[in-house]
Design brief:
284 residues; alpha+beta; 2,3-Dihydroxybiphenyl 1,2-Dioxygenase, domain 1; 8-stranded mixed β-sheet; 6 helices; 19% helix
Length: 284
């Protein structure tokens, strides 16, 4: 039976070694960037968000070493890029019990918050409750967790949801794997999901509801999908990038400028130009 308290991809977490430089870089690619946030002390991290609908992208950096962010630091020791993926949790406490009943000991639930400066200059807070699947359970090298938003109005701020590149929502999260079927099956076990074969042999795992799909594929399959793109620096196994729906492909091409290349009917930004993350803009 599918999980009742996990309803699809909520956001992708892109780890950056220099958080402020990463925010400036993604701004140059046509994204509207939120003011910088600082998480609760036990997390030791700061972030910028790129708000879409119904999901978003989080640029995350380590500000202070803590036990909580040890896996993120281990990831950054090797590369930047998508280190983990969040699902939307309807109820984190209930969701944690659901995965425990399936044999996976959850980490959490954990409450945390970060201050938010609202468009009128007032100070508010974004509050969350999260739980994680065990760190060792990382299909394709991608950690997963679930996030319950307690203050959606301080996260999905309309002024932050308009982007020069026309970005609207996530369509796919791409994960490189030497054995796509094996890693896809691993994710299916974690979320009680299902698989779907793509025409090129890649394996898709719908995340739930109307949210983005996970797509597991080899680096060779990825290169065949986007032959004009350089994948230098991407691992054989690990997060590769995101396919993003845009309202205006020409606007996306203009916004990304010299960092972009046309490939397979999409506008692409190579991982080296986006903090280890392939960006693929497709017309909505």
């Amino acid at each position: 039976m599918p999980l009742r308290n996990v309803i699809g991809i909520d956001h992708a977490v892109v780890m950056a070694r220099d958080l402020d430089a990463a925010a400036a870089n993604w701004k140059r690619l046509g994204f509207t960037i939120s003011p910088r946030g600082t998480h609760s002390a036990h997390m030791g991290t700061g972030n910028y968000t790129i708000m879409l609908d119904p999901d978003y992208i989080e640029l995350l950096g380590v500000l202070t070493d803590t036990g909580h962010n040890a896996p993120a630091r281990a990831f950054l020791a090797h590369r930047e890029g998508i280190e983990r993926l969040a699902f939307t949790a309807v109820d984190s406490a209930a969701g944690a019990e659901e995965i425990r009943a399936r044999g996976f000991e959850p980490i959490g639930p954990t409450d945390f918050e970060r201050p938010v400066t609202m468009p009128d200059g007032s100070l508010s807070a974004a509050k969350f409750t999260t739980f994680q699947w065990p760190v060792a359970e990382a299909p394709g090298g991608l950690r997963i967790f679930a996030c319950q938003h307690k203050t959606r109005e301080t996260v999905w701020i309309p002024e932050l949801m308009k982007h020069a590149n026309g970005a609207q929502r996530l369509k796919q999260v791409l994960i490189a794997s030497p054995e796509p079927a094996t890693d896809a099956a691993h994710l299916v076990r974690l979320i009680d999901g299902s698989t779907r074969a793509e025409p090129d042999g890649a394996i898709a795992v719908p995340s739930g509801s109307d949210r983005a799909d996970f797509v597991f594929l080899t680096k060779e399959q990825l290169a065949r999908r986007y032959p004009e793109v350089s994948f230098a620096g991407l691992p054989e196994r690990g997060s590769a990038g995101m396919v993003i729906a845009t309202s205006d492909l020409a606007a996306a091409e203009k916004a990304v400028g010299s960092a972009g290349v046309r490939s397979a009917g999409a506008v692409c930004v190579a991982p080296a130009a986006a903090n280890g993350t392939l960006l693929v803009f497709l017309g909505a």
